[in-house]
Each structure stands twice: as C-alpha cells, then as structure tokens.
Amino acid sequence: MSWFISPRRLREQGVLGMNQRNIEYISGYNDRRLFPLVDDKLKTKQLAIAEGLAVPPLVGVIEYQHQVSTIGELLKTQDAFCIKPSKGSGGKGILVIHDHDNQEYFKPNNQSLSLADIKRHTSNILAGLFSLGGQPDKAIIEYLIHFDESFANYSYEGVPDIRIIVFRGFPVMAMMRLSTAASDGKANLHQGAVGVGIDIVTGKASYAIQHDRPVAKHPDTGMLLSDICIEGWPDLLSMAARCYEMSGLGYLGVDIVLDERQGPMLLELNARPGLAIQIANNNGLLKRFDAISALEDTHMSPEQRVAFVQRSFAVPPL
Amino acid sequence: MQQKIPFYLLVILLICLGMGSAVYRHINLEIPWLPGETREVWSVEARVEFTALDEPVIAQMAIPETQQGFTLLEQSTASPGFGLSYLTEEDIPAVRWSTQEAVGKQVLYYRAQFLLDEQQQRPWPDAPDVLAAPILSETTALVAERLIEQARQQAADQITMAAQLLNLLQSDDQQVQLLLQERSVEEAAMLLMQLAAIPARQVTALRLKNSRRNQDSRAYLMVYDTVHEVETESQRVAFFNLATGKEGRPQRLLIWELGDRPLIDLEGGRNTRISFSMQRDVAPVQQALEQKYSDVSAMQISLHSLPLEEQKLFRGLLLIPVGVMMVMLMRVLVGLRTSGTFMPVLIALALMQTALGAGLAGFVLLVVSGLMVRSYLSRLNLLLVARISAVIIIVILLTATFSVIAYNLRIVEGLNIIFFPMIIIAWTIERMSLLWEEEGGGEVMKQGGGSLLVALLAYLVMSNQYVQHLTFNFPGLQLVLLAMVLLLGSYTGYRLVELFRFSALHGRNKGASE
C-alpha cells in the first residue's frame, strides 16, 4: 500500500476532489437559497414529515434562553434522547443520553453529566457555538434511535447511520458509518469512525476504512465488517431518492438510521457531503456522476431513478 | 465552457492592467523593480566671503537650477543678519542678500541639494543671439580673422568650428599670444565666437567631487549648433573647458550659472571670494524619488503623496493581499486546515511588528495561558458571548502582565506582544478549546499547527523586502494578485493532501465498471 497517489491515477479512478466538489457540484447543483432547508435540522424534519418520510420523533425544541431552565421537566418524559443544535454541522454539539434518573444523565460511554451540564450545553447551542457561522440557534431534543439489533455488535456506543450520496435524485454511492471508541460514539469518519462502503445495488458491505485506511474488522468489537448486509435496501434507496424532490438539491448527502421498531428514518440532509465515502467504497464518484449527466431523460420518478441505479452501478465482487 | 471565455478575458485584462501600470511606473517615474537601489545626492555649498564697507549691502549670487543630469531637490541659505530673497523667476536665477549696514568680514552660505539623475532631460535655455563684436584694433581683427579662416577649413559645423578655435587658442602661436595679450582666454574665446557668428555662452561650472572643500568654479564655454537644430529636433550643445580647450561635459559637472555674468554682484563690499564645498550622500532611491516628485503632479496619484504616517499604514495594508494569497494557496492547492480562514494573515501581520522569535513565543504563550483560563471558564456555565468577553479581558490582562514582566527582565521584545489582535486571539482560544473538548488535543495541534505554519509562510512572504517594495511601489500589481485569486478560485484539481488521503484507492483493480 502506497502512501501517495498521482493526480493522474486519481483522475482515472474518477475521484472527486474537494475543490471540484465545491465549485462544480455544490455551487453548480445546490441553489444557495435552499441551504437553510438542510442546514436547519428542524426545517428538514418538518419538510420530511410533510413529504411522508419517517423521521425520529421530536421530543421538544428549546428556542430561547429562558426555556433552558425548564429542560429538566421536558426530559423526564424520555428515558433516552439526544440534544442537537438545529443548525449544527459535522456532528458538532450532539449530546446523546442513553439513560438518566433525572439527577444524573449518562452518555453512551457511561460518563455521567449533571442537569447543570445539560443546561450549559443547551445554552451553548442557543448561543450558536456549534452552528454554521456562529448564528443563534435552536436546540432540538429528539427521541433516541434504538438501532437495529443486527448492528449491535458493529457499533461501539453509538448509532450507526447510512450516508447515501444523491446526485440529481439518483442515489449514487452509500456507506455505513460505525462509531468506535476512537470516535467517542460519534459516526464521523474524521473523528475515527469506521466507514463501510455499501454496494448501492445490493446493500451489502463491499469495503471498509478507518482513518482513510482499509480495515477488515471493527476495531472495538472485532466483528467482520464484510458480513454487513442491510435489510430492505430498496426502501432506503427510494427514501434517499425522494429527498431530491423534497429539498431541490442536486448534490445531496442523505443520512438514514435504522430504528429497531420503526425501520429506516431520515436523520438529516447535508448540502456539503464529504468525500470520504469514495475511500470507503474504494471507488470514485465522478464516473457515476458522468453516467447520470449523460442521461437524456431527466424527468424520472424516484422509483425509476432507483431502478436505473440498480441497473447501472453494479460492482463486481472483489 | 461558454461562460469561461469572459472569465479568462477578465483575468487577462486584470493581468494586463496590473502589469501595464507597473511598467508605466517603472519607465515614467523611474521606480526600480528591485529595492536597495541607490542614487547619489550631492550637497553643494557656496561660501561667499567679503569685507563690508559700513554701508547698505546687496549681494546677488547666481544659483544653479535643475538641468540635464541633475535635479534640484532643495536649497537653503545661512546668512544671519541679512534679508533674503530668491529671484528664481528671473532669466538667471539668483539669490539676493541685503542688509542696511554691515562692517568687516561677512560670510554668506548658500546650499543646494542635487539628485544625480540620468532621467533628467530638461532642455538647456535657447541659444543666445550672437552679439555684434566690439570694435577691435586692426591687428587684433586681422589675427582673429585669420584664426577663424583657419578653423573654418577644418570644421564641419558650428561645434567642430568652435572646437578648432578653442584648440587654436591653446597653442603657442604668435598670433594667438597677440590676441591674449589684452584679454583673458575666456574673453578671447567669446570674441572669436562672436566674430565667427557661433551662438555660445560662457558658463560657470563645478566639478562635483566627494568631500571637497574650498573648490573654485571653472569656466566653460557652451556652444550651440543652430544650423542643424531643425533636423535633429533636440538641441545640440557642446561644452568646452576654457582652461584646457577640451570638449565634452564630464560626468558630475554641475552648471552653476548660464548667463555670461559674474557669479556674484556685490554692492557695499569688497574682496569678494566664492568657494565651494561639496558632499556626496547615497540615498535610497525611494527617498530620492520622493523628494524629486514631492511637488509634481505625476506622483500626486501615487501613495507617495500621502503623509508619512498614512504611507506606513498603506505599506501594511497592501501586504495583506499577499498574505491572503498565501492562505489561498495553502488551502486550495495544499489543503491545509487553519482555525479561522484568515486568522493566519492577522498573526503574520502581528509578527511583522514583533521580532519573529519573540512574536511566536508571545503568541504561543498567550494562547496556551488563555486555554488554561478558558478551561476553568467552561465549568462556570456561561453564555457564549459572556465567555468570549471574559476571554478577551483575560487575554488583555495577560498581555499587560507579560509586557511588564518582560520589561522588568529587560526583554524589550516582550513588549511587542501588544501588537497581537486581541479579539482574534480570544476567538482562537475559544475555538481551540471547543475543538479540544469535542475532537481531542490531536485536532487542536493539527489545526493550530496548520494556522501557525500558514501564518509563518505568510509572514515570510510579507516580510520579504522585494515583496514589500513591489506591493507598495506598484499598487497595480494588486490587480495581478486579484487575477491569480480568481484563477485559484476556479481551480478544480486535486489538493496536495488529497493525494495522500485518497492513496488507499490505489490498490483497486480497474474492474469497477459503470
């Protein structure tokens, strides 16, 4: 394994770089005025509900500083929850509490927090500490996903989620993100989560990386990553494809979680999805983008688009 | 790619405009491309000494002007007790000293500063009319006639003719001696010019030599070639040293007076003596040019016309685009991450005010102690704005403390810490401490290190004397920078770090078919 790759090889592989992503895809396909819809998780959630997509139920919203003192009452109704900044990015400011006794609140790693800690965190969110550009924000309290038991051993202290890149309505590439001890229960690859490339046609794992390097087993649980297979994959694809109509964004990252009881739920949308998915799939995005751009028929229903993807993007087994 | 064409046209236009203005300034205002070029500035002092006769004194002395090869920068006099006026509007510029009464030995000084200036091409005054020759004795007239006849045979034009005549004057010939019996060489030369109808001036000149005192002026003859003037457009003028008869104007020959008159005209005194002393200074070209153009409109639109304080400000401001450019390069081409997009430029600006080592040490010291205080603040459950405000106050207190400690330890560089932008530092501390809480110390080191590295690079470029010289003297180059920024902004190629980041994709077989 070399530690360097020539730009020519990268281009041959169809790898999308950061500059090209910013200029040609984000500026090119994502209308600036649509950004607030995806940058604000509360708006996304409302939009998704209107569209008939499943989302994690909302426990409550804290909008103003004076409401922070009432948060204890709100939290009594829930055993497990997570508090997020509505306009956060990159997983910043997400606090997951999987159990509490109204005095002590436990993070997934069993670190305990006091109610004052929770309140401080909420104030920080309101003040815009985690939001894009530091603008004032809202704190969302959400039902904590009970993730599918079949993934229990693949994730360390966190909820695995599935990121699907949707280009002009076509789900193009997918990966599953598994949190690790190194990522502190968060599913962000740059923090050390494992990224498992998922075959867009079958929903089966094809490749996996941690810290941009290939791995075969989950570093904490030792489970073989290549055994991962997502049930009901076509449902996820169609959910992702429908997000195009919902958001209007041509270059979109769709994050989906699998709830044990309620099935796939739309977690959030991202107008600036990262590029690590290419490493996780060991494949570049550009060839697939080009195949879609070459299509003549641009008016296809989400189902037609999913069908096209499943026809066209089959990857032969390694 | 249709809309790309106007874009590239714009970029090319910007580059052409920028380069064009720079070239214009280089050629027309002689601003050199590189710093460190120097010019000679000569201070010439005329010392007028005379004995006053206890009656009103009026002393009028011719003074030199800007001329080919020399630009007058400034002039001054030292003459206690005398009234002073400059007669620069006259045909022959002069300075006039006057007083009601003076007794005994008097000394007056006149000092002028000249820039040795090859670009100075001010034309000489027009050729004088040829005056009718005075009535001469028959023998003298005959001798002169012969000399002129002899010279004419060997001359092609008025200047070569004058050269021949002056050459003859140097000879030991009987006839020449006869001519020189009643008059000086200067007078004889003028006489011959008049008889030969060659327009000429008798001028007083100074050879500039460094650190000379008590120098005398020299008499030169300035001869015009009026016959060929129409064809050649430019004046043809030749200088002849009357003492030797040699033709040519030596380098650094300052023509003091052009008017066929004595240097000084004195009423109410006697025993006049003028002596000159001169001193060469080597001035940076910048300073010399500033003086030269201090009242010329060509420079009015340039930054040199601003007061010094503002000039200094703009020197700094015009460097910012260079620093910004560096940040862009590092982010777009290399892919380094920095905490706060242009924070490194601000740090680089601060580093320019301090010494590099002291600045870096001060910065790290401030941020580290700020982080420690901030880690306590994070336990106080404060609002964000309050916390940042607290950090700002603490950063300022820390700055004051470090400065006092450094001063008492006689570390003068420590005082420079005040140049750091406090609010930016407070934000940096806040961001880093959050990063620490969320992503751990490694990420803080990565981003902090990246910021410092970019700041250091920006500093190295911005403190480079060539860069400073170019940005300040050729503001048009900012347009070139702008064009480069536009180009970089549309660069869609891979970043350097991506070549490492995506290297795991290397091993893929080419079977990934689409």
- pLDDT averaged over residues of chain B: 81
Please describe the biggest sheet of chain A, giving its number of strands, its sense, and whether it closes into a barrel: 7 strands, antiparallel
Low-pLDDT runs of 5+ residues of chain B are 508-514
The helix fraction of chain B, in percent, is 40-55%
Give the count of helical stretches of chain B. Answer: 17
Terminal Cα span of chain A: 17 Å
Largest interface: A-B, 46 and 32 residues
Structural Rg of chain A: 19 Å
Beta-strand segment tally of chain A: 14
The run of helices and strands of chain A is HHHHEHEEEEEHEEEEEEHEEHHH
Inertia-based shape of chain B: elongated
As a percent range, the share of strand residues of chain A is: 15-25%
Portion of residues in beta strands of chain B equals 15-25%
The overall pLDDT of chain A, averaged over residues, is 87
**Portion of residues in helices of chain A?**
25-40%
Number of strands of chain B: 11
Q: What is the string of SSEs of chain B from the N terminus onward?
A: HEEEEHHHHEEEHEEEEHHHHHHHHHHH
Mind explaining what this structure looks like?
The complex is a heterodimer of chains A (318) and B (514). With 318 residues, chain A is of the alpha+beta class. Chain A has helices at 7-12, 18-29, 35-39, 41-51, 71-76, 115-127, 233-247, 276-281, 286-293, 302-312; strands spanning 58-62, 81-85, 95-97, 99-100, 104-106, 112-114, 139-143, 161-167, 170-178, 194-198, 205-210, 213-214, 251-259, 263-270. Chain A has a seven-stranded antiparallel β-sheet with strand order 12-11-10-9-8-13-14. A four-stranded antiparallel β-sheet of chain A has the order 1-7-2-3. In chain A, a hairpin with a 6-residue loop joins strand 10 and strand 11. Chain A starts with 6 loop residues before the first helix and ends in a 6-residue tail after the last helix. The model of chain A has no long low-confidence stretch (mean pLDDT 87). Chain B is of the alpha+beta class and 514 residues long. Chain B has 17 helices and eleven strands. Chain B is elongated, with a radius of gyration of 36 Å. Classes of the chains: A alpha+beta (318), B alpha+beta (514). Chain A binds chain B through residues 1-7, 9-10, 13, 15, 17-20, 23-24, 65, 92, 116, 119-120, 123-124, 127-129, 191, 209, 212-214, 275, 278-279, 282-284, 287-288, 291, 312-313, 315-316, 318, and chain B through 332, 335, 381, 383-385, 434, 438-439, 489-495, 498-509, 511-514.
